[in-house]
Amino acid sequence: MRPTDCSYLKSHEWCKIENGTATIGITDFAVSHLSDLVFLDLPRKGASVTVGEGFGEIESVKAVSSLYSPVSGEVVDVNKDLPDNLEWLAQEPFKKAWMIKVKVTAKSPDLMTAAAYDAHCKAEG
Amino acid sequence: MNRSARTAGGLRVIRDDPGPAAWNMAVDEALLSHAEVPTLRLYGWTPHAVSLGWFQRAADFADLPPGTPIVRRLTGGGAIHHGDEITFALCVDAELLPREVDASYHLLHDAAIAALREHGIASERLTGGDLPTARPTEKWCFRTPGRDDVVTPAGKLLGSAQRRIAKPRARVLHHGSLVLQRPTLTPFVAAVADTATDPSTAARVREALIANFAQALGLPMHAGTLTATEHAAAERLRRERYEDPGFLRAR
Known about the structure:
heterodimer; A: 125 residues; alpha+beta; B: 8-stranded mixed β-sheet; globular
């Protein structure tokens, strides 16, 4: 079971909302299905993100994948150390490898609980 | 359109004439975003051109010969000098390919290797976990063969890269460049011409690639063209994105 205090999107992003601020990252499932990660592009502090739209991109040796925002709002913090330490994504995807923090103005209606997301991953293979 | 409706017609195969770089990349993005059916597009490049991987810096290619057309690809990886080659773009729903990126490469590269073998060209997929991987710090896609690449003793024969999106539904664009003749800027590559000199080989390999990809995906194939929606999207992307120097220099 993945962290139960997080919510999840089918596109494999997670978010944890505390005091109106969402911490966002990608799940262990997403990381395990990409090959060796080589590059991560994240928005700058102060940028706006929108529910369901891309907030960044991650490149593995073989594929570029878009990252989708579970919330709308302003980016108030960015994990600046993560792009230089992409191994954190495999080691601690729900902690050290958080990507951005967003002051939430709206959240996706498609967010799932950990149990529902686990079932989704199992169905997806 | 639901999944069964989208795959009912099988794999649409678009055999395009060689085209300019910006148009080629615009069509592939239009197919990724708008195609309702699984599509395999095959094309070439006229004039010959250099494509950069999505995250590469245009400034790193300031030393290209003057006048060399240059374009940014939607897919990742290193730069490719597109000369005499068979280029393909496979645009399908992600569920038609293995979920793991590595496994999707295995499927498509093994199909390509089989197609080459049918026409007397021996190649293999590099295996093993400790092979060098193509890092973005290496400018050229073909310079250092890495894990799962299709190679001959002369070097890397097929360059591949993917873009994966999840909206509006999970989709994959898989780009491939199969070298027929060594391009001038990247003479270190392998080429079909190394072992097959018959001028008809290229067309026969192309058709074998199509058949083997269709078989690997488990889909019947039929010839097709761009829809009006796809064509209009490609025109817009060509004009507003791939011909825009600002887009090329954005990184």
